[in-house]
């Protein structure tokens, strides 16, 4: 009955809406049981929690698909300008609760399941995380997809469907071990395999000149072809029918591979070679800051860029006969430099395959690309060795050289023959290893270069991309990152969500997060305080249960839960946190027993993964566990201090930990965190921040005020001069003492920790742990003092949530849509 455009016409089709799947409890029950029987192939009289989860997921998916089809049809009919968000990483986490909530049918499902003898929350726990990304950048992509859908923007996300997501972290004897995350083992109901949406992606080979229209043209004769197959993940908006697509590509062997071997009878080798193609999308690189010069990485980048562009251009050509309107219909967003080969690829397709004149193609390229950089340090910028590019993508290297030639000629006219500057600004870097600077390519060819917070943007203009800013000030802008309140309050903290709706008298804040500011008026209300504390206590109990189940450590919920969860990095300074804990422990041990009653009990929680090859980060994890072992088994300290390392930090762990945190630490050395988004999630959940003035924290301070957080540390502008001082930099005695405790083997593993201690002493303290230690301890003392006054603490907590509205990804996306992409909402009619 649900005819497509051809049979009943789009308008009529919307008239048939009452034929959509019903969502009353008995229809839902029937649906779930049907999926148990026909999809999961279990008897409806005997199935376990996991099978119930699978059936439930398929039932939600059916409803997603309906909306998704309607949205795509609507976009097709309206043909609006679309934003294509290209990202190598999407950290989506689980989908069930988020989808059911965004579809507005979570409670109906919960009721339906209850009668069948199942709990919605318990089934939701059965789902594994989709961890196709490393950290902040990847979770940002996921939050932005949610906002794009909710705000009705005609958007597509494009990425890679890695078979192995980010490694699972297992802690054995306190050390990190990595285990592969084969997340597809038990199937993935949230994706739809599109066997008919496949594109060939070419690699290697040679470029030849061919006669064409009386002139010459370049023809790329590839040496290998791999097939890209689309897997679509529908992303539902909240309070709208709009459901957009995250299209992830998987590599499959192409029929074009190695026909030679088949023909010569080497059947076995031909098949084995075919399987090799699949490795392209098999594994996510587990480093979150640098990816230098790896062939597989470059192959992944081009694979996803090429497939995505073939798809985008095919969609455009479906309804346009030439490229005149391309820039009016297509906006391409580069999430960091990782997809920037897209620039050369668009040029190649337009010039070599669509036979546009070079200048016309260049004109189009300059209008469609925007680039967001997440980098702070020039050393972190991605470079691709020319040799590698030449062998893998010979035609692209030629195109990049041609772009660079024209650009440098133009540049000479503008800045003269300043060879130093010309060489700094060139896309091609000469040197021991001749390389392509991907950031320079992205900047030259994009109409906008965005930073991810205001201070980050300043750093870009004054340091990292200073030369470019001076040339093209109009290109540089910033959009402070944000996170979605749907996932980070509504899904992860349902009791706080209900409380907010009750006190605001509306649920409208879920789509219009500025309304949270309404809580400010109630920040001193005693009734709200009581309810607020109750919600927080229940969340802490949930977290305490998890901690005990995971580590065997019993913690008291009346203690302050002090959390630092994020990737382990020297600049994020987990080591400062651990040394602060050692100091606290040392103080308690050396205190008169009678004074111990004054100590504010703490549960310190640290979690995060270290990149497998990052030795210092691995040692920080081991130190945390060694210190925890000592403290948690010291009866002298008891409940006054506990330390737990939460293994395998991921989105689901974050959803559990963040609502239960009282205090959270964002303590990077000033000038090193481009934005930081973890802090925003804690803020939304009424957690107080202990932070340095770095990245987006600077803007958080403006929203909620210095008095409502605990700030410390050297300021960004002070850092270079402090570093200059080297060994002459004064550090407090307490710092020397705690480092000595570690050095002397107080926590064991003396030899293993030696290099860690060396990193922060004797003039090597690049991240200024020693210099900042005193003010860090003072900020911690201020947090203790505030915690004792629960009324004050609760008011600060309410004001944190009330002031978090600006840090919603809805605001970020609106700014991108208006100022960078030039797109309008395109809402699917109800
Ligand atoms: N990893 C995960 C799983 C997250 O949810 C977040 C939150 O934004 C991050 C990493 C980034 O955290 P931060 O911005 O604190 O480094």
UniProtKB/TrEMBL annotation:
It catalyses: [(1->4)-alpha-D-glucosyl](n) + phosphate = [(1->4)-alpha-D-glucosyl](n-1) + alpha-D-glucose 1-phosphate. Its cofactor is pyridoxal 5'-phosphate. One of its GO terms (biological process) is glycogen catabolic process. The keyword Glycosyltransferase applies. It is an enzyme of class 2 (transferase). GO terms for molecular function: glycogen phosphorylase activity; pyridoxal phosphate binding. GO terms for cellular component: cytoplasm. The keyword Glycosyltransferase applies. Its EC number is 2.4.1.1. Keywords: Allosteric enzyme, Carbohydrate metabolism, Glycosyltransferase, Pyridoxal phosphate, Transferase. Belongs to the glycogen phosphorylase family. Allosteric enzyme that catalyzes the rate-limiting step in glycogen catabolism, the phosphorolytic cleavage of glycogen to produce glucose-1-phosphate, and plays a central role in maintaining cellular and organismal glucose homeostasis. This is Alpha-1,4 glucan phosphorylase. It comes from Populus trichocarpa (Western balsam poplar). The lineage of its organism: Eukaryota, Viridiplantae, Streptophyta, Embryophyta, Tracheophyta.
